């Protein structure tokens, strides 16, 4: 190892490919996300954005290339020059360090906001009930929902539910957060409150990959923007630069539709 801890990227994809049968969905994707960096991933529907996030989280297995999180191969162990598939338990442990927030909030409907946030750390016996409860309350306060801790999801707005989902992901103390179109299912007036929470998280130093069509957020918060189309990275760079001065025709065509 020549890399030091601080220079190891949080995410490193090297020529990552993924196929479903004969459909090659990711075609040699290479990118890096440094610690504390926010990367926005944009592109048309079907371009492979969700698949890429699912590979990082090892919900999917890649077919070629190398993918590592925090210097460790995703789903594999390396001993010398040999590479072994991880035991499912070990893979699950690796996945716990990565928080994921989806378009749909997927909260447990029969549990309160507080219970939703406490659930995973409770199952994993991460501390006493009192300690986990006070930590969960802190997280709800962080997403602006301390006063709603005993509400059930059905009695929260979509924006509030999504903020609970973010608090729930944070409860596992992730080193990386993946967001897959977290505001796409929300009424327009509720988008801002979720983006504000994500912005606060970015400012606190969290490493994040955000699939979004919110170009204002990308410009303001992201360190890097990657435009994907047809399973390839078409263009990437400084968000303001890419958004205001796209170099490739495909990027221009896409941006003319979403901006
Ligand atoms: P995006 O998130 O950019 O809209 P996806 O990653 O969801 O794109 O999908 C990319 C392509 O992969 C699409 O053609 C989709 O039909 C295909 N795909 C996604 N998931 C699966 C799956 N589980 N099985 C087969 N094909 C899939
Ligand atoms: Mg998607």
Largest sheet properties: 6 strands, mixed
Low-confidence stretches: none
On the 0 to 100 scale, the average pLDDT is 95
Question: What share of the residues does DSSP label as strand, in percent?
Answer: 25-35%
Determine the N-to-C terminus distance.
43 Å
- Class by SSE composition: alpha/beta
Question: Which compounds are bound in this model?
Answer: adenosine-5'-diphosphate, magnesium ion
Task: Report the principal-axis shape.
Answer: globular
* Number of helices in the DSSP assignment: 9
Helix percent band: 25-40%
Order of helices and strands: EEEHEEEEHEHHHEHEHEEHH
Main β-sheet, spatial strand arrangement: 8-9-10-3-11-12
Query: What Rg, in angstroms, do the CA atoms define?
Result: 19 Å
Number of strands: 12
Helices and strands, with pairings:
Elements: E1 11-20, E2 23-33, E3 38-42, H1 49-56, E4 64-69, E5 72-73, E6 76-79, E7 82-85, H2 88-96, E8 98-101, H3 113-123, H4 129-142, H5 158-170, E9 176-180, H6 188-203, E10 207-211, H7 215-221, E11 224-229, E12 232-237, H8 239-244, H9 249-258
Parallel strand pairs: 3-10, 3-11, 8-9, 9-10
Antiparallel strand pairs: 1-2, 1-4, 4-5, 6-7, 11-12
Bound molecules: adenosine-5'-diphosphate and magnesium ion.
